[in-house]
């Protein structure tokens, strides 16, 4: 039985609100899961130098830092744990050598804390040694 005989059929229309909601969720999902590549700002080629080796090697103070935060100066373990104690030890090594203007070389373990390395840098500043460098192990691939 058709009770709606005299009435015309209603036009069907698509409800866009749920469709827009689904699209917004998809856009948010894509924005969150997208990975971005980081490009270097400058492409540089480092210069090369054809210089002769220095005839006189500067005096070196090798400061080693292990993973437990212990220090050694020129392969001799020291008891100092703070920057002032390290500075005193480095100045004592310099006085015993009779040289001047040393280069402080920091040999830090890969697992050494950042603070222990900063203590060595601070000790070099306190002792008045402006030349500081780090050693690194080259990767053999």
Series of H and E elements: HEEEHEHE
Low-confidence stretches: none
The share of residues in extended strands comes to 5-15%
Tell how many strands the DSSP assignment holds: 5
How many helices does DSSP assign?
3
- Which strand order does the major sheet show? 3-2-1-4-5
Return the structural class: alpha/beta
Could you give the topology of this structure?
Blueprint: H1 16-33, E1 60-65, E2 71-73, E3 76-78, H2 83-97, E4 103-108, H3 114-127, E5 132-134
Parallel strand pairs: 1-4, 4-5
Antiparallel strand pairs: 1-2, 2-3
Helix pairs in contact: 2-3
Overview of the molecule:
The chain has helices spanning 16-33, 83-97, 114-127, and strands at 60-65, 71-73, 76-78, 103-108, 132-134. The protein is of the alpha/beta class. Strands 3-2-1-4-5 form a 5-stranded mixed β-sheet, covered by helices on one side. β1 (60-65) and β2 form a beta hairpin. The chain is built from 3 helices and 5 strands. The model has no long low-confidence stretch (mean pLDDT 83). The protein is rod-shaped, with a radius of gyration of 34 Å. α2 crosses α3 (114-127).
What are the key terms here?
3 helices, 141 residues, alpha/beta, five-stranded mixed β-sheet, single chain
What's the quick description here?
This protein is α/β, with parallel strands linked by helices and 141 residues long.
């Amino acid at each position: 039985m058709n009770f709606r005989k005299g009435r015309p059929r209603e036009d069907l229309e698509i409800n866009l609100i749920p469709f827009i909601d689904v699209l917004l969720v998809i856009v948010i999902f894509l924005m969150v899961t997208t990975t971005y590549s980081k490009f270097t700002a400058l492409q540089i080629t480092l210069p090369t130098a054809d210089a002769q080796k220095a005839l006189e090697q500067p005096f070196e103070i090798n400061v080693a830092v292990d993973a437990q935060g212990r220090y050694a100066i020129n392969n001799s373990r020291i008891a100092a744990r703070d920057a002032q104690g390290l500075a005193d030890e480095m100045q004592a090594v310099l006085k015993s050598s009779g040289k001047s203007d040393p280069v402080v070389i920091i040999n830090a373990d890969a697992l050494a804390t950042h603070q222990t390395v900063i203590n060595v840098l601070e000790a070099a500043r306190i002792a008045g040694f402006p030349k500081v460098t780090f050693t690194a192990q080259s990767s053999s691939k």
